[in-house]
Amino acid sequence: MTARIIDGKALAQKVRARIADDVARLKAEHGIQPGLAAVLVGDDPASQVYVGMKHRATEAAGMYSRQLELPDDTSQADLEALVGELNADDAIDGILVQLPLPDDLDPQPVQELIDPSKDVDALNPYTAGRLAVGDPTFLSCTPYGVLELLGEAGVDTVGAHVVVVGRSNLVGRPLSNLLTLKGNDATVTLAHSRTKDLAAVCRSADVVVAAVGRIGLITAEMVRPGATVIDVGTNRGDDGKLVGDVDFDAVAEVAGAITPVPGGVGPMTVTMLLQNTLEAARLRRGLPRR
Ligand code: GUN
Predict the structure, then answer these.
(1) Which residue, of 72, 209, 251, 283, has the fewest CB within 10 Å?
(2) Residue 290: its pLDDT value, please?
(3) Can you tell me the distance from the alpha carbon of 172 to that of 26, in angstroms, rounded to the nearest whole number?
């Protein structure tokens, strides 16, 4: 293997230790304990795992964590009423409604109800719009984590061509907006299922970010020698193991640096959720972000 492995687990540990220190100081100096509410509707096994990880990480950082589990047949009105209660609850600084919701629930009106000052998941269209106009409030957790990983790996995004594959509201769209902010200054191509000759587009990239959710999407032939490859995919292989969108073994022979799955982007998504919750707790009380 030639590529350097970008260790998201190690970076997450480092950043979480700093967040825990900041939380301890906030408590000691201002009597404030940041609080995160995570809402899980239904019994999707992957979502249960993710929400459980977020809950444990929140408590480990010294924050207050409230996990709300609602049955599969929860009505749209009941879910929206719960968000209203959490908006009004002063112990809660951040609200997260885990996706996907069961089929008969519409996520968009729920996300629109989340108070922007508590929108640590950054999925309210207001929050997404603030990023799109270059004046962000909270950064979407996975894109924020990708940016931190690139920084840790010493990859300069200024003037670099970044190809983001996948145009989801959770990752691709906010990441392309984040990368083009002043200071990050990347030249971004947002590729998707209708992109012509995806292989050639990817081969022109200094950085490829795969965020589609398809095993084996990015092959070695699609990566320019020395390029950086960030794998956001979280798929279950036939053996039940977690695998990304990138053909890791082959691509690692070509790339200059690469994130593994697991142990790459995933731990950083949770970490940036904690960072946003800490910032929300400070901002809601008139304190500077940090
Ligand atoms: N499902 C998968 N990732 C996420 C995330 O970052 N936030 C929410 N709300 N749901 C998700």
Answers:
(1) 72
(2) 77
(3) 33
Whose CA is closest to atom 1 on ligand 1? 99
Task: For residues 55 and 160, state if they share a domain.
Answer: no
Q: Are 277 and 22 in contact (CB under 8 A)?
A: no
Q: pTM to 2 decimals?
A: 0.97
- Examine residue 160 and state whether it is found in any structural domain, yes or no: yes
Mean pLDDT, 10 residues at a time, over the chain (290 residues)? 94 98 98 98 96 98 98 98 98 98 98 98 98 98 98 98 98 98 98 98 98 98 98 96 97 98 98 98 94
**Could you tell me if residue 240 is inside a domain?**
yes
The alpha carbon torsion through 241, 165, 161, 144 (nearest 10 deg) reads -60
The answer to whether residue 25 is domain-embedded is no
* Active-site annotation, residues: 54, 98, 121
For residue 189, being part of any structural domain is answered with yes
Site to probe by mutation for ligand 1, drawn from 96, 232, 271 as the one with most ligand atoms within 8 Å of Cβ, is 96
CB under 6 Å to ligand 1: residues? 96-99, 121, 141-142, 170, 269
For residue 219 the two structure tokens come to 């092959």
End-to-end CA distance of the chain, in Å? 40
Cα of 265 vs centre of ligand 1, distance in Å, is 13
Q: Within this chain, do residues 237 and 171 fall inside the same structural domain, yes or no?
A: yes
